[in-house]
Amino acid sequence: MTIDELKRQAAAKALEYVRDGMKLGLGTGSTAKHFVELLGERVAGGLKVICVPTSEATRAQAESCGIALTTLDDVDRLDLTVDGADEIDPQPNLIKGGGGALLREKIVATASDRMIVIADETKWVAMLGRFPLPVEVIPFGLAATRRAIVEAFAQSGVSGQMAVRNGSDGHAFVTDGGHWIIDAHLGQIPDAPRLAGLLSSIPGVVEHGLFIGQASIAMLAGSDGIRIFERP
Length: 232
Ligand code: 5RP
Description:
4-stranded antiparallel β-sheet; binds ribulose-5-phosphate; Rossmann fold; alpha/beta
């Protein structure tokens, strides 16, 4: 089975948790894209849901699938968010933001009663950090913010190369919120909750890709089927 087929299997499994009348958060990325597509098929068949997308790309896809959309200004809480991830550890804690949508993804996940993370099994790690950690920053004062990030890394016992992410045009990648992303190649993050707290306290950091305590369930599709990890 290809990686893409595994992603679709995980997405189909998450769809089993969707009920009529739910308010949903829709993630971003190639795995979330499968979920949106499958959800669109159910909506076409009569399922009633209303959804908040986590990116302009997901908004466009959901609209083309006929899925009703709303915003967090118009609904109080969401019942469930389904999203992908770049890395998933046993907690399950996550690294997200490979697709650059981490800020809206975290806002939407935080406004949800439950978050299901869907992935193929290659995203599973014993310890977060192999995937470069995305840190969304304000372009103003970038060098000062960068120094503060290096200090936060040192305080939580990690270090590594950092690079401003480029878009396909060779210029800095700009997020939906108009910010830039620094990708930090740390290798391992032994204390992810501590690092998350330190990064969140830096003024020029808008958000970071460590999702600590947010995923309630992780669904990892592999050649032997789907493994489900539930936060106790
Ligand atoms: C986007 C994300 C994605 O969920 C993450 O990058 C996984 O993407 P994919 O499903 O394409 O592997 O965090 O910001």
